[in-house]
């Protein structure tokens, strides 16, 4: 069953290739959605796909980003959107 998660990553997550690495991992896991910097210094990611894949992507971004230091992660789960076809980096 497909789900969608909106995830806010806080910490040292801007200016460290977080969005590019996040997108690469999400695509490798077959997820769709987007990732973007927020004005408050956090990063927001929307992941859509199977829940185990989303959870793996969240965990990877939390613990294995090469240059970032994630301090907190907020996750909210939602119904999937029909129009998500790929994973995009938003600017």
Structural write-up:
- The structure is a single chain.
- Helices cover 26% and strands 42% of the residues.
- It has two helices and five strands, in the order βαββαββ.
- It has a five-stranded mixed sheet with strand order 4-1-3-2-5, with helices on one face.
Summarize this structure briefly.
Helix content is 26%, strand content 42%. It has helices at residues 18-28, 51-63; strands at residues 2-12, 32-37, 43-50, 69-78, 87-89. Strands 4-1-3-2-5 form a five-stranded mixed beta sheet, covered by helices on one side.
Shape: globular
Q: Name the structural class.
A: alpha+beta
Might you state the CATH topology name?
Alpha-Beta Plaits
Overall CATH architecture: 2-Layer Sandwich
Outline the fold blueprint.
Elements: E1 2-12, H1 18-28, E2 32-37, E3 43-50, H2 51-63, E4 69-78, E5 87-89
Parallel strand pairs: 2-5
Antiparallel strand pairs: 1-3, 1-4, 2-3
Give keywords.
91 residues; alpha+beta; Alpha-Beta Plaits; five-stranded mixed β-sheet; 2 helices; 26% helix
């Amino acid at each position: 069953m497909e789900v969608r998660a909106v995830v806010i990553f806080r910490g040292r997550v801007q200016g460290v290739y977080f969005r590019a690495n996040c997108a690469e991992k999400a695509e490798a896991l077959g997820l769709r959605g987007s990732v973007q910097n927020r004005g408050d210094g956090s990063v927001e990611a929307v992941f859509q796909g199977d829940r185990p894949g989303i959870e793996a992507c969240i965990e990877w971004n939390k613990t294995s980003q090469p240059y970032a230091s994630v301090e907190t992660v907020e996750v909210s789960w939602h119904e999937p959107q029909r129009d998500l076809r790929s994973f995009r980096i938003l600017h």
